[in-house]
Amino acid sequence: MITTTIIGTGNIAWHLFRVFSLCNEVRIAQVLGRNKEALTYFGKTASLMQKRAAIAKADVYIIAISDDHIFEVSESLIDLKGLVVHTSGSVPMQVLSKHTHHGVFYPLQTLTKDRSVNFKSVPICIEANNEKSLSILSQLAVSVSEQKHIINSVQRKSLHLAAVFANNFTNHLYHIAHTVCADHQVPFSILNPLISETAAKVAEASPYEMQTGPAKRGDLGTQAQHIELLKGKAEKDIYTLLSKTITNMYQK
Amino acid sequence: MITTTIIGTGNIAWHLFRVFSLCNEVRIAQVLGRNKEALTYFGKTASLMQKRAAIAKADVYIIAISDDHIFEVSESLIDLKGLVVHTSGSVPMQVLSKHTHHGVFYPLQTLTKDRSVNFKSVPICIEANNEKSLSILSQLAVSVSEQKHIINSVQRKSLHLAAVFANNFTNHLYHIAHTVCADHQVPFSILNPLISETAAKVAEASPYEMQTGPAKRGDLGTQAQHIELLKGKAEKDIYTLLSKTITNMYQK
């Protein structure tokens, strides 16, 4: 049995609380947060985070808050004996080095409150400053997911960057597609099978080989018509730059 | 029973042949192509397309070839009485107007040979120049798919543009993510659950609301680190432009 204390009440805290609650091998000692309203979700485990707050003893303290505040909050845990970890993709483990036992527990998934995901398939990237801590994080990871990965801070930063392309930027392209549909009175939902098939393909073949379309063919006529159809300057610029890059890559 | 003749041996022809062959309501009279080798797949229905080729009688002639050659090939069908359609997302129906009965049968999906898709969920966008032809295309569409849409040429062009963002450009972002992973020795497959969840989300909520990440937060520190990590100029330019666009959209 691993006892955890979660610090934070945001999306990741919300999902960890949910999945730990359902798991026999994990006990949640406490959830600490600054926002009273956000804390209500966490029931009797919830405590208000304040100066000299009584922090319950735990094996693992999980700091699940925005990147900018991780160091500051970790300072308030300095007298505790347990393992202190954060959940960020881009912050080095090093920021927690004042703690004898420290590490990272990074779920590589887009997590939003109120939308449940199958946590068993969420990759958990772990890192720790010693073997004992790594073993605890490993146990914690496998108790909630089938995908545990030992990833150092440099690799994690690269993964986070790759995730920005595969999630943040991709989602913005979906948004542009959504706008194009709305502007021309066609339902965006017609694109859903295309979107899911595009995503499914890369699990089996390299995206380099899967590329198709007017930019790959160097079809400038279609590209010119598309740019004219787009209403905003930003969309036109994105279309132009991505097409140019794809054409350069394949017409060599 | 609808009798069809398919002209072309590429990806769309391949998939239409496969799905029509499995369908009791459709009979394939002939598959015409210029490439002998590509024709072998189509067995006894295959015929070499040449001057004065004997073209089998059919209810519907489906021109499934690259955009640039649709008009030219349609000229060779000028004496036939059936309905002549193309399968392109961006070519107006108008190019077939020399034929008394003409239309469009556009499957909105990324189709590659050797990768089977569940055709029942492929949206088929149809258009025709008269009611009788539309009714035939409608019958043909519902015999292979559960998603039939009547879409005019202007709407179809917009859908095709939206599909360029949702498929071509998205796939290129996957490729960049793939490169980042390879450059830093992390397996790209760790991103698969993120990619499929990102795609699944837009079926339920608008991508505008689902946006997350350093660009949305206006987190310039993380952005600068990411740009430094990227190796190619094109990738840096794409990162910068997409981030700037997202920041402008949300920081207003």
How does this model look, in words?
Two copies of one chain form a homodimer. Chain A is α/β, with parallel strands linked by helices. Chain A has two domains: about 1-150, Rossmann fold (3-Layer(aba) Sandwich); about 155-250, ProC-like, C-terminal domain (N-(1-d-carboxylethyl)-l-norvaline Dehydrogenase, domain 2, Orthogonal Bundle), CATH 1.10.1040.20. Chain A is about 45% helix and about 15% strand. Chain A is built from ten helices and eight strands. Chain A has helices at about 10-20, 35-40, 70-75, 130-145, 155-185, 190-200, 205-210, 215, 220-230, 235-250, and strands at about 1-5, 25-35, 45-50, 60-65, 85, 100-105, 125-130, 150. An eight-stranded mixed beta sheet of chain A has the order 3-2-1-4-5-6-7-8. In chain A, helix 9 runs antiparallel to helix 10. The longest helix of chain A is centred in the middle third of the chain and has 31 residues, at about 155-185. Chain A is elongated and about 65 Å long.
Note the topology:
Two copies of one chain form a homodimer.
Chain A: E1 2-7, H1 11-21, E2 26-33, H2 36-39, E3 46-48, E4 60-63, H3 70-75, E5 83-86, E6 102-107, E7 124-128, H4 131-144, E8 148-150, H5 153-183, H6 192-201, H7 207-210, H8 214-217, H9 220-229, H10 233-250
Helix pairs in contact in A: 9-10
Characteristic terms for this protein:
homodimer; 252 residues; alpha/beta; Rossmann fold; N-(1-d-carboxylethyl)-l-norvaline Dehydrogenase, domain 2; eight-stranded mixed beta sheet
Enumerate the strands of the largest sheet of chain A in spatial order, edge to edge or round the barrel. 3-2-1-4-5-6-7-8
* Main β sheet profile of chain A: 8 strands, mixed
- Provide the succession of SSEs of chain A: EHEHEEHEEEHEHHHHHH
Please give the most extensive interface between any two protein chains, plus how many residues each contributes: A-B, 87 and 87 residues
Count of distinct strands of chain A: 8
Give the oligomer, counting copies of the same chain as homo and different chains as hetero. Answer: homodimer
Q: What is the CATH homology-level superfamily of the largest domain in chain A?
A: NAD(P)-binding Rossmann-like Domain
* N→C terminal distance of chain A: 58 Å
What's the CATH first level of the largest domain in chain A? Alpha Beta
The fraction of residues in strands of chain A falls at 15-25%
In DSSP terms (H or I, runs of 4 or more residues), the helix count of chain A works out at: 10
Looking at CATH, which topology of the largest domain in chain A would you report?
Rossmann fold
Summed up, the domain count of chain A is 2
Detail the poorly predicted runs of chain A.
none
Name of the CATH architecture of the largest domain in chain A: 3-Layer(aba) Sandwich
Structural class of chain A: alpha/beta
Rg of chain A computed from alpha carbons, rounded to a whole number of angstroms: 22 Å
Shape of chain A: elongated
